[in-house]
Design a protein that fits this description.
Elements: H1 2-17, H2 31-42, H3 47-50, H4 52-59, H5 62-88, H6 95-102, H7 105-142, H8 148-168, H9 170-197, H10 221-228, H11 230-235, H12 241-244, H13 252-280, H14 285-290, H15 294-303, H16 305-339, H17 346-349, H18 360-383, H19 391-420, H20 437-454, H21 461-485, H22 497-505
Helix pairs in contact: 2-9, 2-13, 2-16, 4-5, 4-10, 5-13, 5-19, 5-20, 6-7, 6-19, 7-8, 7-16, 7-18, 7-19, 7-21, 8-16, 8-18, 9-13, 9-16, 15-16, 16-18, 19-20, 19-21
Length: 509
Amino acid sequence: MEANKQKQMLEDKKHLHRFGYAQELLRDMGGFSNFAISFSIISILTGAVSLYGHGLLYGGPGMMGFGWTIVALFVLLIAASMAELASAIPTAGALYHWAAVLANKRWGWYTAWINLIGQIGIVAGIDYSFALFADPLLSGVFGYTSTETTTLIVFAITLLLHGIFNHIGIRLVARLNDFSAWYHIGVVAVLVISLAFFTKHDLQPLSYLYQVGETFSDKPYAIAFLIGLLQAQWTFTGYDASAHTIEETINPRVRAAWGIFSSVAFSFIFGFLMLAFVTLSIKDAGAAAGAGNAFIYVISEALGGTFGNIVLWLVTFAMWFCGLASITSFSRMMYAFSRDKGMPGSRHWAEISVKYRTPAKAIWLVVILSFALALFDYVLKAVNPDTSYTTLSFLTAVSVVGLYVAYGIPLYLKLRAEARGDFQAKHLGPWNLGKWSKPINILSLIWIVFICIVMVIPPNQNAGYALIGMMLLLMIMDYGYYRKHFPGPEAALNVSMEQIKRQEAKFEE
């Protein structure tokens, strides 16, 4: 068994060498661990729960039946398209490297920065979601009043803990992610069984889950329903983590591809079960939609007292695991981009800790940038306290648009390369879509364009403004940094095997 593992790892290293990169990161993740990191970041107990009120407010109960399913089916197509590219180009650069290989370094550079913007949003959004749930629960234990300031403090402490755990090493994080996957499934089971058998009032009929036409917002229902899709669309983000950890995965051309696709598929199934029972447990949808935290309101009404608090703590801990995995993914993306000198100060962010075999400095930069985004929004709201949007909707909209634009670019470039004859069947990896590849890619791109427009219409226009500002800054950097300092990943192809071996020797035990 060990001999087969060593043989496979040697083969994986050879695939990495083809792109000019040394095996610096510790390759120790199995297939389940690779799946678990994406499953943990998708985290139905984070996205679907923290934005439950958003979905209910705009789309009513029908958002949980129709909205979740519609989004999930299209995201499955996107995940399949991305899995195909991960199998063909198995490097930690993932989206960025795919774009550069399929087109050129400029496409790669823009993809990387857009992905980075989305990654900042998703890390901040996940850990802020945890803080939104943990802070009121902690306030009940310690007797203080929960405010936006105390939430920001809990958010900062959470980021700090996640940074420490990621710094210590991939083995620990991988084990925690493995546990997280089972933990998510277990908590969903507890939640479903509790609501099915111990709800204090009668459940709604099954048809309630598909009741459309009712919105508790001031928007026409058709527009409100589209705005409410943010709940499901933000949940289904971060599954590119299986690709970002590809250089730490054994047999990644198969396992990482399945990790991307299966994490979305299982999240769809378990998420639907959870949302169905939570929604059927609603006693008064209007009161729930108007509550400060709709999910906490529904669970408290349905299960009451101590039992309800225990369930809420279980859900909150799941969010903590989600944030841990998201920093792992983001730091690997930043490391891969930096080793190709794509960022100012790249030599620092590409540096690997010899002791822990992790991109330590990149991890802490991720923590700082994620806190800065939430702090920026906190200051804006302090200056304009009458604003109607929430910090969470701002962070999640930024992450959805940033990530999905980055997901779409390499899919578009693949179609273009195929039309030119530059990308052919022989370039595909062992995990591929065969004759269905082109139509699935096209449908994926149509959905990405559609959802990116929807995610920045009011009340999320501030996310659109933030993204436009970031893009303008990126265009300035194109002239100030890109043209002078970015050689692109093709420069790695000029690295000799002797140089690669010398680099790998630094990390050999």
